[in-house]
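Can't paste images in this forum, so I'm doing it all in text. The chain is below; anyone willing to post the predicted C-alpha cells underneath?
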Amino acid sequence: MRQLAILALALCAIVSASAAHAHTRSQSFSTWTVGTDTLEGIFQVDAYRATQLSEEPQDLPELVSHHLAETVKLVQNGGPCTASDPRPIPAPRGDIRVTLRFKCAKPFAEVPAKLTMGAFFDVSISHVHYIRLTDSSGPRETILTEGHTTVAVGAPEAEHASTFASFLVLGYEHVLSGADHIAFLLALAMLAGGVWRILIAVTGFTLGHSLTLALVALGVLKPDTAAVEALIGFTVAWAAGDALARARAIPQWYGLIGAAGIIALPPLAHFLGLPVLPWLVIGGVALFAAAMAYARDLDGPFVAPVIATVFGLAHGAGFAGPLLALHIPPGSLIWTLLAFNIGVELGQLTALAAFAGALWLLRRTLKEIPTLAFDATAAMLFALGTFWFVSRALA
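Text version of the structure:
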C-alpha cells in the first residue's frame, strides 16, 4: 500500500505538470508611451500561450491581435477612447508582438484615464502581466493579475513611483510560477542531501543566477532566449539523473547514452523539418553530460554546490526575462535588481519549506519511506527535464 501511495503521488505530479514553454507560466508583457492625449504600446506574449486562444489552427499574430482588440481598453471620463486596430510586428523567435494605439478626447493631464489589460486572463486565471508606462514624469512598472487588471494613465505623480515591493513580488512570483525552477530546486536538494548541504547548494545557485541576472539586465550579456530555456530544462534532467545514478550506482557509461541522444537532436530536427539550437550549444551540453558521468567519483554533496553555481548562470538569464521586457531605466536598475533578487530568494525558500513540510508529513504518515519514493521522484524529474530540454531545443 505504501508503494502504491507513492506511485499515485508521482503519477499525480506527472499529470499536473505544465507545458514546456516560457518557464511553464502564463505571462505577457507590454510597454506604453503616454502622449498628451494618446497612448501607444507594444504587447508581447510567447507563441505557445497564443495557441490556447483557439482550438482551431490559425495565424497566431492575427489571433492575438483580435484578442487584444477585445480585451484591451482605455476609458476616459466613463467613455472609451478611440482605438486603432492592433497590428502584428516582427518579434524574437517563439514570441508574438502587437502594437496598440489609443486616442482620447481630452489631455490626460486634465482628465486621467484607465487602461484595462484583460488579455489572456480568461485563458488562465494565474496569468501575470508585466506593464511599463512612460510619460513626462518618468517610467512606472506594475504587475497585473486576475482581479487587478487596470492601471491609471495620467494619474497624479504620487501614483507613478515604482515600488520596491512590486519588484520583490515580481521575483517571488517568477520563481513559484515556474515549474522548471521549482523542479530544479527539488532535484538539487535530492543531489545535495541534508539540510545544511542543501542550503550551501542553494547559496551557490543564488550566486550563479545573481551574477547572470545582473549582467543580462545591464546589457553586458545578451543570451539567446531559446538556448536559455532549453538549458534550464537540461539542468533539471541532469541534477535528477545524477542524484538517481549516485544513489543506485548506475554505470557511468549510461552518461554516454544520454550524450548520444543529445547529439542526435540536430539530425532529428533536420529530418522533421524543425528548427534546433546551434551545434555549439548542443555539442557543449552533450560534452558536459558525458564528462560529468565519469566524474561521479566526486562526492555528491560537494558537487552539488559547484554544479548549482554553474547551472545558476543559466537560470539567471531566465530570471532576467521579465526585467528585460520592462526596459528598466539605468537610474533605477540597481534597486530593481535588488528587489527582484530578494523576491527570487524568498520564492526559493518558500519552495524548499514546502518540500520540507511535505517530507515531514510523509514521515509522520509512514513509518518508513520506501526506497521507491526517491527513485520515482528522481525518475519523474529526469523525464520532465528531458521533455523540457528536447521540446525547447526543437521549438
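Residues 330-365 form the longest helix (36 residues). The chain has 13 helices and eleven strands.
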